[in-house]
Amino acid sequence: MATKIMVTGGAGFIGSHVVDMLINAGNQVLVVDSLWEHGGGRLENVNPKATFFQLDVTTPEFSELVRAERPQVISHHAAQHSVKISTEKPDYDAKVNILGLINVLRAAKDAGTRKVIFASSGAIFGTPDDLPINEQTPQRPESPYGITKMTSEHYLRYWRVANGLQYTALRYGNVYGPRQDPNGEAGVIAIFAKRILEREPVRIDWDGEQTKDYVFVQDVARATLLSLSKGDGESICIASGEPISVNQIYRQLTELVGYEVPIQRAPRRAGDVHAAYFDVSKAARVLGWSPEVSFDAGIRITLDSFRGASSAG
Length: 313
Ligand SMILES: NC(=O)c1ccc[n+]([C@@H]2O[C@H](COP(=O)([O-])OP(=O)(O)OC[C@H]3O[C@@H](n4cnc5c(N)ncnc54)[C@H](O)[C@@H]3O)[C@@H](O)[C@H]2O)c1
What we know:
Layout: E1 4-8, H1 13-24, E2 28-32, E3 51-53, H2 60-69, E4 73-76, H3 83-88, H4 90-111, E5 115-121, H5 144-163, E6 166-172, E7 174-176, H6 188-197, E8 202-205, E9 211-212, E10 214-216, H7 217-227, E11 234-238, E12 244-245, H8 246-257, E13 263-266, H9 281-287, H10 295-311
Parallel strand pairs: 1-2, 1-4, 2-3, 4-5, 5-6, 6-11, 7-10, 8-13
Antiparallel strand pairs: 9-12
Helix pairs in contact: 1-7, 2-4, 4-5, 6-8, 6-10, 8-10
Nicotinamide-adenine-dinucleotide (NAD) binds next to helix 1, helix 4, strand 5 and strand 7.
């Protein structure tokens, strides 16, 4: 049966893929997005079958909309997601990520919403002592952004106990794929794909051997779909389970295009972790989720999408 689902941040990179997947599965979807100037939200990302509201999740107008529309589930992706902005403006970061979430939770309770599915982040862990990272890894976030994501999970747990509102927190690794903003500070695959297609130099920090766990956006979106009926009261890591280095990303992209571009070397950036990857067995156990798109396939799809975007003007 169709579920009425509100996706905040649904014009953004991950949120728009979540919207597409929910609609393809036969659900009714409302998208709320402020199209924040520093975010990846674009009107053209919004599925035409969704109903779109340009609203800020921190405002009373947003809570009024939730109370009026009474969604059964809210997938909360709207956030201030820049680590850099969070360090420069921790008050703004807390306003959107904490007060925005509280606005979502309060309105959800009033509207009789059953569940909130939350976009959390591997940033809650900081630098782990041991690898792979799993749900029990100690949380020592190294940025205000990581702190607000960690704190958000505590609010979700509290709201469930105090108000009976269900939640699942999905802790994403480094998500990549079509529609990722290539002008953002993160998203090395999108940034490299754009620059390589434009035959511009790419910047590689440190020795380039630092690894992260890159997970394809459609795999990530599928975790939200599965969380509609599973994972109540759980925090779950959603990642590929594989470490991939920056050098490897450069090599794979240049092999796919068939030429190289100059590399600008730069020192280590503050907060860069030398190695990170996740154990995703809890996602398999609780949600029946595991990554389906290999890195080879995902990077090819991503490059093709950026090729299409640049030829479209
Ligand atoms: N991209 C990743 O690798 C990654 C990793 C971990 C977690 N996340 C989380 O996933 C979510 C989506 O991230 P993304 O990469 O798709 O970024 P994105 O910028 O493409 O999407 C975020 C969307 O939220 C909207 N937004 C921002 N502030 C808002 C506000 N106050 N009210 C309403 N809408 C607002 C933006 O306009 C944008 O469309 C975020 O919560 C982010 O913290 C992303």
